[in-house]
Design a protein that fits this description.
Strand order of the largest sheet: 8-7-6-9-10-11
CATH superfamily of the largest domain: Glycogen Phosphorylase B
Helix content: 25-40%
Strand content: 15-25%
CATH class of the largest domain: Alpha Beta
Number of helices: 12
Shape: globular
Radius of gyration: 19 Å
CATH architecture of the largest domain: 3-Layer(aba) Sandwich
Largest sheet: 6 strands, parallel
Length: 286
């Protein structure tokens, strides 16, 4: 049976699709060019197609894990299309009114579309010596970023080598954290994944905010410590082996994805998160 999976954004969502592709060998994965190298490494993926460049061929099943206007246009008139439930209204109610139950985990929503149980990880095969702590200080949204000085304090308190990871937009933060930790730390940011895949293969434990690289590390079998601020671990994206560090505040969640500034101005969810709590979580996984 020919199965195509459509998930065009973003990094974390593409990675989490591995819980479905690993249960459906021979999957054709359609995504944007930026995520194609990651999708190509997911268990069960036989071929990656770039949306907007490669035409959608004939398939027995089409699993639309994006469920937006673009994926509807791509699949208009096709048979065998199943679409993920987004739970947008429920998520907005939790942000705006702080009411209602959290939505199901993303991997459970994906699996329901495919009619399978979520495959256990790892979903990415990134072999390596597992000799380094991975620190991910960046995030697309400012409210998801733990202060640089806390990252430095954490890195200095941990034994062994550290690799500070990020994308090109994180270069200044990555460099500042690595320099603050000292010669044991390596700074790595890149547009693409060639060196990032190698670095993740070295991870014995990873610390990150609610970002795509958190999910990438976890999907490769690295135990992860997730720092949640404006979003919460209960809202569907936490499904990994590891530990969550977050502070119970009545203002959380304040956003579905993060924002440029704290809506009430104090950013207490992360600004007041102490190094000791994160260090203890790392120690519990080491």
């Amino acid at each position: 049976m020919s199965v195509v999976v459509i998930r065009t954004s973003s990094l974390g969502d593409v990675v989490l699709a591995g819980a479905v592709t690993a249960a459906l060998p021979g999957v054709v994965f359609r995504t944007k060019p930026a995520w194609a190298p990651v999708a190509a490494r997911l268990s069960g993926v036989s071929r990656v197609e770039v949306v907007g460049r490669d035409p959608l061929g004939d398939h027995d099943r089409i699993l639309d894990l994006q469920n937006n206007a673009r994926s509807w246009r791509e699949t208009l008139g096709r048979r065998g299309v199943s679409r993920v439930q987004r739970y947008d209204a429920r998520r907005r109610l939790r942000v705006w009114l702080k009411v209602g139950a959290p939505p199901p985990r993303v991997i459970d929503r994906y699996a329901a579309v495919a009619g399978v149980e979520p495959a256990p990880g790892p979903w990415l095969d990134l072999p390596g010596p597992r000799d380094a702590t991975l620190l991910v200080p960046g995030a697309a949204w400012a409210t998801k970023r733990w202060p640089v000085e806390r990252w430095v304090g954490l890195g200095r308190s941990l034994p062994g080598p550290c690799i500070v990871l990020g994308g090109p937009d994180d270069a200044d933060r990555v460099r500042a954290v690595a320099q603050g930790i000292g010669p044991r730390a390596e700074a790595l940011w890149e547009r693409g994944y060639e060196r990032t895949f190698v670095a993740v293969g070295r991870g014995r434990v990873a610390v990150a905010g609610d970002t795509g690289l958190l999910h990438l590390c976890a999907a490769a079998g690295v135990p992860v410590v997730g720092l949640f601020g404006p979003t919460t671990a209960a809202d569907g994206f936490w499904c990994h082996h590891g530990a969550v560090v977050e502070t119970a505040l009545p203002c959380r969640p304040c956003s579905r994805h993060g924002s440029a500034a704290c809506p009430i101005g104090d950013h207490a969810c992360l600004a007041e998160l102490p190094v000791d709590r994160v260090r203890a979580a790392v120690a519990g996984l080491s």
